[in-house]
Amino acid sequence: MLHRKAVEMIVQEGLDGFGVNKLAKAAGVSPATIYIYFKDREDLILQVTLRVSDKMLKESLDGFSPDMTFEEGLRKQWQNRAGYFLNNPLDVEFIEKMRYSHLYDKVAERMHMTFKEVMGKFYNNSVARKELIPLPFEVYWAVAFAPLYQLIKFHTQATTFGHKKYTFTNDDMEQALQLVLKALKP
Fold first, then answer.
1. Gap between the Cα atoms of 66 and 50, Å rounded
2. DSSP letter string over 97-126?
3. Residue percentage of the chain with pLDDT more than 90
4. In 10 A of CB 126, how many CB atoms?
């Protein structure tokens, strides 16, 4: 409950508006209780961020193997990420806010080790099997995942360029995925 309340408060008020005393009051506990579990405000924020990012990482890798074909693996990544992002919008917004804080480097370092190992192997396997053109990592990532993230963003916005609200569908996701696969395959 304390973690969830911290996520909600940081999303609503930002890091500048977040404090241990405010959290304690909102969670109905004493600040001393919070300090039993966390060294200080920064430790609390870091632990909450690690918890949310670990969950996101675990769900994005669910059922995924770096030995999958490129098409199968990328599809699984898209399905997992779409599921997580659509089912956990508060956590996603929280991670986005944290991404621009000095604390995120510590979180990214931990995530990077696991994620880089799995996704790096997937990328290298796909290139070795000639299912993927070799690209700098950032170019690959931008082409492979930006279309998915944009569809999700359209879904979460009230309107899209002044048009009616967009609703994310598996058919739209598959259509975008097919275009990405076409762009990335040799």
1. 23
2. HHTTSTTHHHHHHHHHHHHHHHHHHHHHHH
3. 79
4. 23
Q: Are 55 and 61 in contact (CB under 8 A)?
A: no
Place of tokens 């796909």: 126
Residue 137 burial (CB < 10 Å; 0-12/13-18/19+)?
exposed
Question: What is the dotted CATH code of the domain comprising 2-184?
Answer: 1.10.357.10
The rounded distance, in Å, linking the Cα atoms of 83 and 45 is 25
Rounded to whole angstroms, the Cα distance separating 131 from 156 reads: 33
Do 60 and 77 meet the contact criterion of CB atoms below 8 Å apart?
A: yes
Partners of 163 in beta bridges: 160
Q: What is the pLDDT of residues 88-129, one digit of tens each?
A: 999 999 999 998 888 888 888 777 777 888 999 999 999 999
What is the separation, in whole angstroms, between the first and last Cα of the chain? 49
What's the whole-number average pLDDT of the chain? 92
Question: Could you state, in order of their start, the residue ranges of all structural domains in the chain?
Answer: 2-184
